[in-house]
């Protein structure tokens, strides 16, 4: 059974701080890694993807991948109240299907 | 921008009714997916399709069927709705070996 684990939170950070969201996965053959943001009552929105070990930056977001440790993370710099949402980690192995974690709820306090 | 649309945002049906949920994508994506999302259980894959008329069962296909007659349209059918199928239903599409893009969701209540 392929699994993706996330700390359910809630994770609470003050405005302007760095929020760090973490995800581990069980399938060593996983090839692609995705982060989704889901606001309450809305559908998930794809915000980042990473395929290679290392860091990938996009604006205030940085995705980090360590395949040896089977670990992927999302850093949000200068966190804003509008970043308050549930963040889903998703992993793709050798098929078109994604395995999703259950998400980490982030609250950014003004 | 990728656009995935779903036929209804909210739907109320009675137990035993046959229910059709429609999903349309405008980006010529090969893959389309149907999920349900329930509190505490996360996203669960019901069915997906990697080509017209092709389908594959996901993790929880029981009580559901699907149809993909055209590349842009993927339908989810609840053959005989039951109260345990009350949920948020999410459709997604993706190109080959890429991330998925979700529609707005349909909140289905079965009474």
List its traits.
heterodimer; A: 110 residues; mainly beta; six-stranded mixed beta sheet; 11 strands; 0% helix; B: 111 residues; seven-stranded mixed beta sheet; four-stranded antiparallel beta sheet
Helicity range of the residues of chain B?
A: under 10%
Reported for the largest beta sheet of chain A, the result is: 6 strands, mixed
Largest interface (C-beta under 8 Å): A-B, 19 and 22 residues
The CA-CA distance between the termini of chain B, in Å, is 37 Å
Shape of chain B: globular
Could you give the count of β-strands of chain B?
A: 11
What's the number of helices of chain B?
Answer: 0
Helix content of chain A: under 10%
Number of strands of chain A: 11
- Strand fraction of chain A: over 45%
Which class do the helix and strand fractions of chain B yield? Answer: mainly beta
Write the H/E string of chain B, N to C: EEEEEEEEEEE
- End-to-end separation of chain A in angstroms reads 40 Å
User: What would you call the shape of chain A?
Assistant: globular
Spell the H/E element sequence of chain A.
Answer: EEEEEEEEEEE
Uncertain segments of chain A: none
Mean pLDDT of chain A: 95
């Amino acid at each position: 059974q392929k699994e993706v684990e996330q700390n359910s939170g809630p994770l609470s950070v003050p405005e302007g701080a760095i929020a760090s969201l973490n995800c581990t996965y069980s399938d060593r053959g996983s090839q692609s890694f995705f982060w989704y943001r889901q606001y309450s009552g809305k559908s998930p929105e794809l915000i980042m993807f990473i395929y290679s070990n290392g860091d990938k930056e996009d604006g205030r977001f940085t995705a980090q991948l360590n395949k040896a440790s089977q670990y992927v993370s999302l850093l949000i710099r200068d966190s804003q109240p509008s970043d308050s949402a549930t963040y889903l980690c998703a992993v793709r192995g050798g098929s078109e299907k994604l395995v999703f974690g259950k998400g980490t709820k982030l609250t950014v306090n003004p | 921008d990728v656009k995935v649309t779903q036929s209804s945002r909210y739907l109320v049906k009675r137990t035993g009714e046959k229910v059709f949920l429609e999903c349309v994508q405008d980006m010529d994506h090969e893959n389309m997916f149907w999920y349900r999302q329930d509190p505490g259980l996360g996203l669960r894959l019901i069915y997906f399709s990697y080509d017209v008329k092709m389908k594959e069962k996901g993790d929880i296909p029981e009580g559901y069927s699907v149809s993909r007659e055209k590349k842009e349209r993927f339908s989810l059918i609840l053959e005989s709705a039951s109260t345990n199928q009350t949920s948020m239903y999410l459709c997604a599409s993706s190109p080959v070996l890429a991330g998925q893009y979700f529609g707005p969701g349909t909140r289905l209540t079965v009474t």
